[in-house]
Design goal:
Distance between the termini: 60 Å
Structural class: alpha+beta
Number of helices: 10
Helix content: 40-55%
Strand content: 15-25%
Strand order of the largest sheet: 5-4-3-8-7-6
CATH class of the largest domain: Alpha Beta
CATH superfamily of the largest domain: GAF domain
Amino acid sequence: MTVKESAVRSHMHAPAKMNSVKVLSKAFAALDALSDTADLTPAELSLALGEPRSTIYRLLTALAEHDYVEPGARRGSYQLSLKLYTLGSAAARRFKDVRAAALPAMERLHDATHQTIFLVVRRGFQAVCIERLEGQLVGVMILSVGGSIPLHAGANARTLLAFEPREFWAEYLASGPLHRFTDATPVTRKALFSELEVIAERGHAISDGDVIPGIASLGAPIFDHCDRIRAAISLSGPRPAILDGNLESNLELLGKSAAEISRQLGSPGC
């Protein structure tokens, strides 16, 4: 086959490949929608995703054939299958050592402050919560276990980003417009990079209402045996409890917790 013939054949197959990618994207969107609700009918999924009902039927049929969805509690509805639980458990095992190392220190920090304590890891351009201890203001906190938040928003997420190479900062910024949660969210290159430089220099992050008005948080990095950023721990709650008159003591407690967890993970710097 000549180079020209190969190029023509590749061009002919390109639409089929793009269609396959689109189908996968729609299937993932359906799974995401089902993860937010106990079960959904094809009509409800069609409305939620803005896709024709015939498309939804085909997606659900294919997902059911591969055991990713199963009949729900309501007639004609679908729900996620236990196969996804198995896959999720396999993914969770990757972070089991971090959670096991962090939990005792998190509990001590929680007992000392009575505020919400988060443990997050980076997955792509998101900070994913893998552990959370509830504080005084439970209902207002945006990040649940398994949930995620963009890396520019909040003390724990910005901590993960700040200790990555600057090349990754630029890559993150180029990934798309930064979502503005409040007027305090850093959404420009200048604002974000300036904040990241401060975090990297002082060793902790401070969030003052940039995700939820009136809620503040402090974040500190956790390093592994290679002295790479592995996770971040944060202390979150009402602004007066986190910042007003308690900032120094909270930072000291948080820093000790982060250092203890890093030691458990074999960080040579701790």
